[in-house]
Design a protein that fits this description.
Layout lengths: L10 H17 L4 E5 L2 H12 L3 E9 L2 E8 L11 E3 L7 E3 L1 H11 L3 E6 L2 E4 H7 L3 E7 L2
Antiparallel strand pairs: 1-3, 2-3, 4-8, 5-8, 6-7, 6-8
Helix pairs in contact: 1-2, 3-4
Length: 142
């Protein structure tokens, strides 16, 4: 009833795998890499493309298997992937209301918070524009 969150319990593992793959390939200074396709990974790649952690991604079929071809943005001193913190774990889920989200936005400065809402994965600014609350997954902080 009410909201049907996209992310709360099982996406944290998939999100962690995607972020680790991106971080490893940034460190190795590779401009692109392949990552296995799943529906969860598709949602996550769409989100991290939206917040500009990657340049582009597209779906490829190779030997009857589907993969994402991920193209990275390379900057000399990119540190953003080290600054992600998960709040939600399998045993702890943090729901945040619109009122609390407004307060968090005022206090957080330039941080970007990741929310799972009934409308999908959103940043805290998008959630405020849509006037929707959800589960706090994590944050990218500076």
């Amino acid at each position: 009833m009410g909201s049907n969150p996209v992310f709360p319990k099982m996406y944290s593992h998939a999100f962690n795998n995607v972020l680790n793959a991106v971080a490893i390939n940034y460190k190795a200074k590779k401009l692109s890499f392949l990552f296995p396709y799943t529906k969860k990974n598709a949602i996550i790649f769409h989100f991290i493309n939206k917040i500009k952690l990657i340049n582009t991604y597209k779906l490829l079929k190779k030997n009857n298997n589907y993969f994402f071809l991920v193209k990275l943005l390379y900057y000399k001193n990119l540190q953003i992937l080290k600054n992600f913190k998960f709040f939600t774990k399998k045993t702890q889920i943090f729901f945040i209301s619109i009122k609390a989200l407004k307060l968090l936005t005022k206090r957080s400065g330039s941080s970007t918070f990741l929310l799972s809402t009934s409308k999908g994965l959103l940043t805290h600014n998008e959630a405020l524009k849509m006037q929707t609350s959800g589960f706090l997954i994590g944050s990218f902080f500076n």
